[in-house]
Every structure is written in structure tokens, then in C-alpha cells.
Design brief:
heterodimer, A: 116 residues, mainly beta, Immunoglobulin-like, seven-stranded mixed β-sheet, four-stranded antiparallel β-sheet, 11 strands, 0% helix, globular, B: 111 residues, six-stranded mixed β-sheet
Chain lengths: 116, 111
């Protein structure tokens, strides 16, 4: 069964360093998302990506964050200069389309980011 | 912005018992997801509901979206230890259908 994959599963970094979180969405999906979950809190939307551009972003997704789909299969989230409060589980998600039959949004297993 | 309240926040049941988790939205629901999460792990898709009155089942789990589309319930019949985890409801919104999540309901099933 197709699934969303994410690497690495756990990333430890020093404050101020850049990190890139990688995702491989389900192959025929067209809509891509990043969410994050700080320990013990809600899963929060960060950004959606469609047709090679950002379609919507939250207030959390400031200039320190960027997303890219460099090669038609990978979908990356970059944090330029990490802060302690960026420590969280980051989830990638994808879905086929917007119609009823393709609306299910599937999540990856997450990357746990720890900023020291 | 849309807010989702889940109740109860925590639930402990004896194996074999039935249980219900509720999700109430501050706005009309145009799509409602149910996911299951093991602590510190990814989200497993359970069901998506879109129409008022819609009900879906998967194995022993049934979810329903009420007619007014502001509340959904998730019912587990004859609970098993494998049902333990955190159940999240998520509301679809916006043109690109981001999901806004509730805080989750933590379910423990005692053998």
C-alpha cells in the first residue's frame, strides 16, 4: 500500500543551524502539506503546496521556513536558523485531489526535531 | 478560525466495552477526518466524513457526522487493547483543504 515517507526519523541540531526535513509523498498525489506537533499540544498546520507553489501558510510559517519540491518526488521543509521553540514533531501529508474520492489526506510517520 | 473540542480528553475502558468519542466544531464542518496516533508517532487515517448524516465504518470503528455538520462522533464496539491510542478529529477548511485538529482523546483499553 502506498505511503508517505519521511527522513530522518529524528534530527538533533544546535540552535541557529539550518535543517532540511525530507518527505516523499504518495506518487500520484498533487497536494502536499507540512504540519507540526509540539509535545503534548495539537497538530498545527504550517503550509500547503500545490502546482509547485505555496497555496496557503499559517502565521507559524515565517521567513525562517521554506518548502520545495525539487525533483517531482521529494518535498522538503527547510528551517534556516533553528530556535529552541522549533523543537517538535514535523509531519508531511499528501492527498490526491479535492474531489470526494481523492480528498483523504495521508500523513507520514514524522520527523522529531530537537533543537539544543 | 475554526476550533474543535474533543470529549472526553481521556478515557479508560475495560476490554470488550463500547465507547464513544465526540468532536464539536465552532463552525460548520465541510470535511471531518478521524485519525489515530500512538504517542510520539505518526497519524493513521481512519475515516473522512463530508456529508451531513454520513456514517462510515471500518472494522469495529464507526464515525458519524451529524445533520447540522457541527459535530462528529466516533464509536468503538467491543474495544480491544489494539484500539489504545490518541484519537484526533480534524476539520478541513480553506481552498486547499488544510486540516485543523482537536487536542485528541487518549484511549486506554485494560485487558
Amino acid at each position: 500500500e502506498p505511503e508517505v515517507t519521511q527522513t530522518p526519523s529524528h534530527q538533533v541540531t544546535q540552535m541557529g543551524q539550518e535543517v532540511i526535513l525530507r518527505c516523499v509523498p504518495i506518487s500520484n498525489h498533487l497536494y502536499f502539506y507540512w504540519y507540526r506537533q509540539i509535545l503534548g499540544q495539537k497538530v498545527e498546520f504550517l503550509v500547503s503546496f500545490y502546482n509547485n507553489e505555496i497555496s496557503e501558510k499559517s502565521e507559524i510559517f515565517d521567513d525562517q521556513f521554506s518548502v520545495e519540491r525539487p525533483d517531482g518526488s521529494n518535498f522538503t521543509l527547510k528551517i534556516r536558523s533553528t530556535k529552541l521553540e522549533d523543537s517538535a514533531m514535523y509531519f508531511c501529508a499528501s492527498k490526491l485531489g479535492r474531489s470526494t474520492s481523492g480528498a483523504e489526506q495521508f500523513f507520514g510517520p514524522g520527523t522529531r526535531l530537537t533543537v539544543l | 478560525s475554526q476550533e474543535l473540542e474533543q470529549s472526553p480528553q481521556s478515557l479508560i475502558v475495560q476490554e470488550g466495552k463500547n465507547l464513544t468519542i465526540n468532536c464539536t466544531s465552532s463552525k460548520t464542518l465541510y470535511g471531518l477526518y478521524w485519525y489515530k496516533q500512538k504517542y510520539g508517532e505518526g497519524l493513521i487515517f481512519l475515516m473522512m466524513l463530508q456529508k451531513g448524516g454520513e456514517e462510515k465504518s471500518h472494522e469495529k470503528i464507526t464515525a458519524k457526522l451529524d445533520e447540522k455538520k457541527q459535530q462528529s462522533s466516533l464509536h468503538i464496539t467491543a474495544s480491544q487493547p489494539s484500539h489504545a491510542g490518541i484519537y484526533l478529529c480534524g476539520a478541513v477548511s480553506g481552498g486547499y483543504q488544510k486540516v485543523t485538529f482537536g487536542i485528541g482523546t487518549k484511549l486506554q483499553v485494560i485487558p
